[in-house]
Amino acid sequence: AMGIPLHRIPDIRRFYGRDAHGTDPINFMEEDYPPLKNHVIAARITAENPDEGFKPTSGRIDRVKFQSTPNVWGYFSVGARGGIHEFADSQFGHVFANGPTREDARKNLVMSLKVLEAIGEIRNPVEYLVQLLETREFKDNSIDTSWLDRLIKEKLVKINLDTATVVFCAAVYRARMHIEGEVDKFRDQLQKGQTTLV
């Protein structure tokens, strides 16, 4: 806090039940703070491929669909028809969920991630995050960074996709891109007077 002692910061003082503008010191190692009444869990939304060790991806983002609720909010740095280029930070969003307990916050985050959609050329780890949040270790809060490293290394969390569905979705996506390209070409020709509607 730019050299200001913690015991002089009004929000810290309020948190410890002190006069916000007082100057008496607070012994942070000895003094208890009020019981927590709110828990928050956040998820970084990135253009990364969880199946390849969270390797960054780049490309167009056609749409991000996210709905805030009283217990979940988020922000995204890309809009419709935006994108992530190869030299950019892979994070393009952040989702926060709160609740009276850690478990309530976790459940709220899971529900919001299940309906979040980032559609385009990039990969994102949203489904992977949902599976991480549903693991017994995460629910029990018995996790650390080595836990996540082990899951990634051993590929213990993975998205199971039906091959036929993947092929169908890829075909639909390619068809859509082709049709959009043809429509754009037609509009350009029409604006230049090179095509008639008859």
From TrEMBL:
GO BP: any one term: fatty acid biosynthetic process
Chain ranges of the Biotin carboxylation domain: 1-153
SMART domains in UniProt: Biotin_carb_C (SM00878)
Molecular function per GO: acetyl-CoA carboxylase activity; ATP binding
Keywords: ATP-binding, Ligase, Nucleotide-binding
Coiled coil: none
InterPro entries to which the protein is assigned, alphabetical: ACCA, Biotin_carboxylation_dom, Biotin_COase_C, Rudment_hybrid_motif
Listed name of the protein: Biotin carboxylation domain-containing protein
Organism, scientific name: Compsopogon caeruleus
